[in-house]
Amino acid sequence: MHKRLCGSYRLKNGCFIFNDHLLSLVTSGPILPFKLSDIGEGIMEVTVKEWYVKEGDKVSQFDSICEVQSDKASVTITSRYDGVIKKLYYEVDATALVGTPLVDIETEPGPEVVHEEDVVETPAMSNDEHTHQEIKGHKTQATPAVRRLAMENNIKLSEVVGTGRDGRILKEDILNFLAKQTGAILPPTPFHEIQPPPPAASAPSSASMPKMKPTPSVQLPVVSRPVFTGKDSTEHLKGFHKAMVKTMTAALKIPHFGYKDEVDLTRLVQLRKELKGLSEARGVKLSYMPFFIKLIRLKGCLFGLLGDVLICLLLHHQASHNIGLAMDTSQGLLVPNVKNVQLLSVFEIAVELNRMQTLGATGQLGTADLTGGTFTLSNIGSIGGTYAKPVILPPEVAIGALGKIQVLPRFNSRDEVVKAHVMNVSWSADHRIIDGATMARFSNLWRDYLENPASMVLDLK
Question: For the Peripheral subunit-binding (PSBD) domain, which residue ranges apply (predicted)?
Fold first, then answer.
């Protein structure tokens, strides 16, 4: 029979000191590395934010060791061993890799050694602690973490049956006892090295929370899928479509420089309105395009935009200025051109445009109308849109795209808000031949003529 010793004792350098007398030498247990386990979601490393222990501290199962921070969450690491911290592997804010040791823990001796550091019995206890720890002289064995769990849930340890070694009360014993009191059924859960922070003392137990009833599933209506019977087909490109593929493929080799601007056509709108009746009396429909074409020829030749074509690194200066107009026809995109614009008046250009539009609508444009162009305009605004990025038609070196005419508020010379007819223009130039400054100067002159159409009378030839 072993007689229980009453009094105070402490552990120093592996020896028991009982009432200031050396009793026996205690054998140290094995030192085990406590590794950082995989915390899921593909996280391979974490940052150590705070240590809750230091070297030499005594820990028990479920005691908090440290807090780590991943790129998704903050996790508190708890101990799975009872023992003494021998080494910390990382400083605060250091990066810890999954699978590497966090700390070394010297575990408690084996069962052949009587000493158990986790069991601390002392006669100096408060009345409240005495109520929980000792009833009618019966002492209980439990780790500090288990005692804390019992106190948080107002459970007397003397009423709990311990299933651990020598009747020690484990955490599972507390949870099972709590479940019996509340009538909850706790499913068995495996032990994890990494657990979320424990709930606050005032937070209600998960076992006391009411369970939510599952929402009944709603059966979706069955919808019959239509059966598609179409078949894929292959078509060889021919005619104008085949020519367009070759032309646009060649255009990909051209370094395009883009330039965009805004033109106030208010005065030109008034001029056309005055001339429209006269032109129709002669059987010709007068649009804005004859003015655009004539004014491009008027100043474009000064900047090498009209008569220059680039063929095999040779820059050809064309004497004839043939300005093309992109047309949307039943045969696809066609670009007939008005020949010798430098010799034609605005009215004569309108006559030629009427002829080409009639032939294009009936698919009767010939080779003579579709070849020999030196500059192209695209009137994309007749369909819609304000700005575009026109593609140069080789071997030409420039192209323009005209947006729709919009009525917008603008300031006049007296800072008054007036109604203005505004058109946006987008230019593209072959940057191997034409630089940005050249295109900007040409666009400015062309815009000035359109905004003051009466001034072109002085330069018309």
Answer: 141-178
Mean pLDDT on 361-389: 89
Peptide bond into 395 cis (omega under 30): yes
Average pLDDT over residues 116-139: 38
The residues assigned a catalytic role are 431, 435
Q: How far apart are CA 314 and CA 432, in angstroms?
A: 12
**Do 179 and 185 contact (CB within 8 A), yes or no?**
yes
pLDDT of residue 198 exceeding 70, the answer is: no
d(CA 321, CA 338): 8
Q: Quote the CA–CA distance of 307 and 24 in Å, as a whole number.
A: 112
CB 66 within 8 A of CB 50: yes
C-beta neighbour count of 251 within 10 angstroms: 17
**Spatial distance between the Cα atoms of 197 and 176, rounded to a whole number of angstroms:** 21
Give DSSP secondary structure letters for 323-344: EEEEEEETTEEE--EES-GGG-
Q: Where would I find the H helices in 82-203?
A: 127-133, 144-152, 171-182
Closest-CA residue to 257 (of 390, 378, 373, 394): 390
Band of residue 255 on the pLDDT scale cut at 50, 70, 90:
very high
Q: In the predicted model, is pLDDT for residue 193 greater than 50?
A: no
421 - beta bridge partners? 407
Instruction: Supply the pTM of this predicted model.
Output: 0.51
Residue 295 corresponds to which amino acid?
L
Q: Which two tokens stand for residue 170?
A: 């484990």
Q: How many angstroms separate the CA atoms of 286 and 294, rounded?
A: 13
| 264 has a pLDDT exceeding 50 | yes
DSSP 227-281: PP----------HHHHHHHHHHHHHTTS-EEEEEEEEE-HHHHHHHHHHHHHHHH
